[in-house]
Amino acid sequence: MINKIHPIPAFTDNYIWACHDSESDQIAVVDPGDADPVLDYCSDNNLQLSHILITHHHADHTGGLLRLLQEFDPFVVGPEPSGIKGIKQFLHEQDSIELFGQQFDILEVPGHTLDHIAYFSDDSETPVLFCGDTLFAAGCGRLFEGTPEMMANSLNKLTSLPGETRVYCTHEYTLANLAFALAADSENKALLDRVEREKTKRDSGLPTLPSSIKLELATNPFLRCEQDSVKQNVSSHCGKPMREPVETFAALRSWKDNF
User: What mean pLDDT is reported for the chain?
Assistant: First the structure.
């Protein structure tokens, strides 16, 4: 079973999540955009890289893959439509994989990209979600390839998971996302409280992640498009009333893109 999930920082704001096997010196990593920090982490801790999980094709999630294959020959899984070189098993909705004796179910979550998948496990005391760039702490990914409807449906799929699910996204965007969330959902007391907690973590040099589904439902404006407060703020920003949640979501995403 996985007994520790550790963030390996990469670039300026990426996290490569390292999953430790409780019974060996093996680890798996999620979305290694850069090989160097993974190689350093393995060397410093006498670890062997046995698996790589890929969520989507963007270079900051796959750029280290080929070098890590040369160094360790790990088993690599990821989405089929991606064209990513090095994947040994392609995954689709309703597939599952076993990682260190723990089952992960595959969820297709297009929107940020069309090939995006997420990995969910409730095979341990606390459920775990690796969601790449679909759901962020207090935000969601940009719509580079998909539509607002696609992304809204993908987020709904993720938020149907248990509230205690730990959300491991791959970027430390939390404070910037919270600044926007305050504009979109300014009267949200839970959001105001979260801002202070997350600032304290960053001031201490700590990651704000993982988040949880419960926390995101309470404070993430992209998951609160049916709330009157969010609809009113988006309507005010756009200068027209929002009638449907997906219309609110699309306007909210456009607002964030230019915030």
Answer: 97
61, 115, 116, 185: the active-site residue:
61
Judge whether 185 counts as a catalytic residue: no
Burial class (CB in 10 A: 0-12, 13-18, 19+), 120: buried
Residue 61 annotated to the active site: yes
The question of whether 112 is a catalytic residue gets the answer yes
Angle between helix 35-45 and helix 65-72 axes, rounded to 10 deg: 30
pLDDT at 106: 98
Q: Are strands 48-53 and 211-212 parallel, antiparallel or unpaired?
A: unpaired
Q: Out of 20, 51, 57, 58, which one is annotated catalytic?
A: 58
Active site residue 51: no
Using alpha carbons, list the distances in angstroms from residue 73 to 67, 89, 154, 188: 9, 14, 32, 48
What integer pLDDT is reported at residue 225 of this predicted model? 96
